[in-house]
Amino acid sequence: MDITRDGSLPSIWQSMTVTKGPQHNITDATGQLWDVLIVGGGITGLTTAIRLQEAGMDCIVVEAHRIGFGTTGGTTAHINTMLDTPYHTIENDFGEEGARLVATAAKVAIAAVDRNVSDYRIDCDFNYKDGVLFAETDDEAQTLEKIYTASRKAGVAVEWTDSVPIPVHFRQAIRFPAQVQLHPLKYLYGLADRFIQRGGVILENTRAEGATYSEDQHQIKTSQGLLRARRLVYATHIPPGVNILHFRCAPYRSYVLAAQLEDDSYPNDLVYDMQDPYHYFRTHVIDGTPYLIAGGADHKTGHGDPVRAFRELRAYVYKHFRVSSIDYQWSAQYFEPADGLPYIGKFPGSDDDTYVATGFGGNGILFGSFSGVLVADMILGEDNPFQALFSPSRVKPVAGFASFVKENADVAYRFVADRVSVDKLNTLTELPPGTGAVVNYENQQVALYKSPEGATVALSPVCKHAGCIVVWNDAEKSWDCPCHGGRYDPYGKVLSGPPRSDLQEVRLVQA
What's the pTM value of the predicted model, to 2 decimals? Predict the structure, then answer.
């Protein structure tokens, strides 16, 4: 089976061969009132589903595309007790007890992944590795001291080291033992197979388009039909619709290369520098061939230049390694939380028995796995010391939120007429095949894409989430929203949320 993902550039993980389990369709699911319906078939969704299933609940997973299509298919699969938000920052914002709870949460997540791999016998290249963080400047060294001290205070194992397993000059470095790496799609498909074998249902290519709640049950409208459930979980990376969490989670793109080296200088550990944005490295062996996996050059979605980001990352890798070939390059999306911690728990402002998990930053597998533990505990009524710290309700409503939503809904169709002259557009701009651009036409804006065969597609550039104008991503061949991270393929079809509907097509007619 071919594995697709939310971008035109394949990740190294897509080189695997997948044997699909039993196929499900909407007729398998419509006649049942499910205990829990989970929207999203990534790490978060399947971890939640399988834990609830083990507790005796009937669960169904709804995935808009295919399992592994989203960020799980593009992650570099670093699983750390060392987090993107350093412990001295967490301690400053949430206190010493908060920092200790976050450190414990990281350990819970790693233990959950370890348990799943062991209990379900998932062959996913799971390995414990050390994680090495190094400083190259005096300022970075001062920050590294803070990270070391606060990490130890929070209960994280860390030690000073005088070696870094990549060829760089450095001033200081610290080592975090018992970090983890794995093959993310092998792990994800292992979870999916186990869930299905035990009677779970996964509906692929089924988009959740809306939900209502009455008489203690959710009515979930999907692209394939209506489903019913007592509880609803949004494991969609960022929740759909327009809600307060979109103003507390900023979308970012991160860029990755998988390279073969001329020598044997592949790092045996997980390695991170302290630049802003930082670079990260590890090694993975695919079909007997080792690859250096290097990432970085992050920027906010729709705000940077993806082609330039890849160019900068290539230059960095060539500077430090003897590269034989770069066999893969791809990018992936994550959401950075405003206060440094993810939002996991009851969905604020939503219906009863609705849960959400978002804002994982660059620690997606870690916090996605932890979310499965925390959300499952909450649904099962289990005591959990993490609930208050990660609660999405720690976000307070912002003034003018309702009017903002109204204004954006009102302006969504002001930008583009529903008929545009193809002759005038062709004289306005000459796009190379396989590229797109947002252009002005008679004081209006149109998103144009020219296919590799030369056919022109015209769309409204107005994102169907909150009315922002999309921009063209020439590396991944997608339309990206610079406001809340919604992404569409060249023809306007939704690749990833929060938008629930496709870009509006603009009909091209002869003048």
Answer: 0.87
